[in-house]
Amino acid sequence: VGWVGHSTILINLYGYRILTDPVFGQKVGVSLGFYQIGMERHVAPALKLEDIGVVDLILLSHGHMDHFDIPSLKKIADKQTKVITAAGTSKLLKRISFAEVLELDGKESVTIDEDVKIQAVPVRHWGNRFPWNTNYGYTGYLIERKDTRIFFPGDTAYTPEFTWLKEKGEIDLAFMPIGAYSPDAFQRHHCTPEQAWKMFLDTGAKLLIPIHWNTFVLSQEPVEEPLKRLLEAAGEERDKIVLTEHGQVFTLEKKRVLVPE
């Protein structure tokens, strides 16, 4: 598991390569030919897009431009790569060459490539790419292969609804967004670090990777504040928090213990 930045994570699950919300450009926003108008990165991606290689599966949580980056998706597109995306958003990919594009909504699930199960997990967010895209969905994902389960919520405000994930079996690893919560009005769509820790505990997961911070300046809190507040919220259990810097890589071993590579 490697954190590239924001919500972009490269997961190698028993040799099956999954990439979440790939965003590799210096900016995200509206593309006008070779020029892009939008927010600039605060920190460069930890991997260059050309170093990613072919991935088996891309998971897209919702249509916001800092998660669903068309220029990055065009560059990484391959006829061997499948995509799972939120309801109503597959139309954004119709001109990009992927092996297959599927939409998941609610708690729908699909098993692909024989033994990789992906289940949609409802989150509290919104999916509009522009003000008029009211039919664009948003979702998190539970990823399962063999005896390993990983939860990727994409982006979410606080919700007490993640407790049902315990019913799916032991979750080895949960990602959780921790930034973009200030001013307080932003908490309608983004959780605070303390709320992220509470939702992590609700999932029953063993380990936490904080995401969605220190990449783009989306809000008013200092860029380093989310991690500091998360560590304070975790208290004596802060050793459960891993991958706290861009580019860090950890290996999930058979005994379900993460160790640095």
Mean pLDDT: 93
Basic shape = globular
Amount of helix: 10-25%
* Rg from Cα: 17 Å
Major sheet attributes: 6 strands, mixed
User: Strand content of the residues, in percent?
Assistant: 25-35%
DSSP summary: helix tally: 3
What is the element string, with H for helices and E for strands?
A: EEEEEEHEEEEEEEHEHEE
Task: Summarize it.
By secondary structure, the protein is mainly beta. The protein has helices at 70-76, 193-203, 225-234; strands at residues 2-5, 8-13, 16-20, 27-32, 35-40, 57-59, 82-86, 100-104, 109-112, 116-121, 140-145, 148-152, 173-177, 207-211, 250-252, 258-260.
Which helices and strands, and how do they pair?
Elements: E1 2-5, E2 8-13, E3 16-20, E4 27-32, E5 35-40, E6 57-59, H1 70-76, E7 82-86, E8 100-104, E9 109-112, E10 116-121, E11 140-145, E12 148-152, E13 173-177, H2 193-203, E14 207-211, H3 225-234, E15 250-252, E16 258-260
Parallel strand pairs: 3-6, 6-7, 7-8, 12-13, 13-14
Antiparallel strand pairs: 1-2, 2-3, 4-5, 9-10, 10-11, 11-12, 15-16
Helix pairs in contact: 2-3
